[in-house]
Write a structure and sequence with these properties.
Helix 2 (20-26) packs antiparallel against helix 3 (32-47). The relative contact order is 0.10. Helix content is 73%, strand content 0%. The protein has helices spanning 2-15, 20-26, 32-47, 52-65, 69-88, 93-111, 117-131, 138-146. The chain has 157 residues and is mostly helical. The protein contains eight helices and no strands.
């Protein structure tokens, strides 16, 4: 049966970005070969999405549905890359600030999901990539959100 799922992943891989919703749950497949094939196909399909905001949203949705640690790590990296590209490519400071706020808020929301330690771990890594600051707490992330341009991280003990 795993072989059939792996063949399905291969076929979906040829479909490209339109197959992302179908590939997402397969990244958490109980068979390691199926999960790895799905992650590879998902990553290639996501690369076809030109708009960084759309890539970030697609990755964000996948982060909410996946609990497999390997898949979360890979998706988190894709989300961080797309989010950074979206913020850096903003047409105005206001648009960059709005994008940054949306990204950090989604990270805070992921951290609030106490049902998944692996999702929280991925959120910490995304936060650190996007902000350049070490993760401290949700309260500290919210302080960052309030004024990212003037944010000073707490001093380490």
């Amino acid at each position: 049966v795993a072989g059939v799922r792996e063949q399905a992943v291969d076929a979906l891989g040829w479909v490209g970005e339109k197959a992302l919703p179908e590939l997402t749950p397969l990244m958490g497949d109980s068979d390691e070969d199926v999960a790895q094939a799905a992650m590879s196909a998902w990553q290639l399909a996501l690369a076809e999405v030109n708009d960084p905001a759309e890539r970030a949203l697609t990755a964000q949705l996948a982060l909410k549905t996946i609990s497999d640690p390997d898949a979360l790590e890979m998706i988190g990296g894709e989300f961080a890359n797309a989010a950074t590209e979206m913020i850096d490519g903003a047409k105005s400071e206001k648009q960059a600030a709005e994008s940054r706020t949306a990204v950090i808020q989604s990270i805070v929301d992921m951290m609030g999901d106490e049902s998944s330690a692996t999702r929280a771990s991925a959120a910490k890594e995304i936060y650190e990539t996007v902000t350049g600051n070490a993760w401290v707490s949700i309260a500290e992330a919210e302080r960052y959100l309030a004024d990212p341009d003037n944010y000073e991280p707490p001093e380490e003990d």
